[in-house]
Amino acid sequence: MTANEIIYLDNNATTQLDPAVIEEMLPFLTKYYGNPSSGYSFAATARKAINLARERLAALLGCEPMEIVFTSGGTESDSAAINSARQFSARGQHVITSAVEHSAVLRPCQDLAKRGCTVTFLGVDRHGNLDLGELQAAIRPETALVSIMWANNETGVLFPIEKIAEICSEKDLLFHTDAVQATGKIPMRLRDTAINFLSLSAHKFHGPKGVGALYVSRGARFNPLIAGGGQENARRGGTENVASIVGLGKAAELALKYLAEGKCSIGSMRDRFEKSVLEIVGGAAVNGEGAARLSNTSSLSFEGIESPAALLLLDRQGICCSAGSACRTGSQEASHVLRAMNPNADGARRSLRFSLGRFNTDAEIDRVMGVVPKVIEKLRQSAVRTHVTTAP
Ligand code: PLP
Asked: Rounded to whole angstroms, how far apart are CA atoms 307 and 321?
């Protein structure tokens, strides 16, 4: 199957580069290779391009350009925020996060716990919602940081981040949000919020892989994770990844244009897909149905199937989707997000995540709507046959 024949519905794992992003990046991989820190005018082209990217990203986030620190992606931004906040807080050694964060937040928090910090992992209800009363009750005099994701990568469930940031600000606590899945998909005006740190990653909104940013609000103290030269206003050492930063800036500009036009049909394609699958396939349910969700994400559970077998059959039809986070593909462990939402059920082992992007078409969705019910039916029949032949 060629790349042109596949139907790509795994946009929460990564997205296709927008051709306009590639075009903008190319001169910085070929002609303008100067080090942005060098003094001669040839290098100034690279320096100016980074400044433009910073302005474009600031426009998407609704913040000041100087509040942006370019990084190698979402994982680095998360680690930088978590480590920095903990080092600076005079309050002590307690961090609050949620049980459904991406491993880029969970792992650094677990590492903090191993190094003597106390970490509270807030649970969610069966829709994937947080209880803000529980969050407030978890805050202690020694709490240093609260880190809660904006949108969940597996279910698309959105948390009320502005409200959570307010709660933290009232208690004089630092607040970080992993907005890797939310950036470019929902409008943001960070200057009107009490968020101190926000992580994002270009490859989730049609930019290149290996580049991202950390928003550090004006006035929030920040200790770099990567020390070195004085790049990024001494907040992230290392020669800048110029072409990728340029690509991130262009991707941000395009995302803002699509958000402003409000013409994007992703939400209606997702709704049409979900409605059709739920109507045709019995024993199917939407994970996070009772919560506010990103309009591109559909996480569905199907009775009587195992997700790996479904993924294999869909792959044979050229359909790319996933069982949950791309980082866990190949692991036998069921999704920690779906288990947190429903600890007593086996939904985590029989769910599929379809995530749409702006290059998907109605024709592709029509084809997937035809294939998915057949795949589920086939798996259920083979499960029945296996059961009959193995019955004593
Ligand atoms: N946070 C979330 C919510 C994600 O979905 C991802 C990637 O899947 C990351 C962090 C990590 O981002 P990156 O791949 O840029 O390191």
From this structure: 11
Q: What residues form DSSP beta bridges with 143?
A: 94
pLDDT of residue 336: 94
Best mutation site among 10, 70, 82, 102 for ligand 1, i.e. most ligand atoms within 8 A of its Cβ?
102
User: Is 181's C-beta closer than 6 angstroms to any atom of ligand 1?
Assistant: yes
Q: What is the pTM of this model?
A: 0.95
pLDDT at 175: 97
pLDDT for residue 280 is more than 80: yes
Tokens encoding 134: 């529980």
Share in percent of the chain as helix, strand, coil (round to 5): 45, 15, 40
* 201, 203, 241, 353, best to mutate for ligand 1 pocket (most atoms within 8 Å of CB): 201
Q: Which positions are annotated as active-site residues?
A: 327
Sign of the alpha-carbon torsion through 99, 103, 104, 109: positive
User: Ligand 1 center to residue 266 CA distance, Å?
Assistant: 21
331 C-beta neighbours (distance < 10 Å), count: 11
Cα–Cα distance, 200 to 386 (Å, whole number) = 45
The rounded distance, in Å, linking the Cα atoms of 298 and 368 is: 13
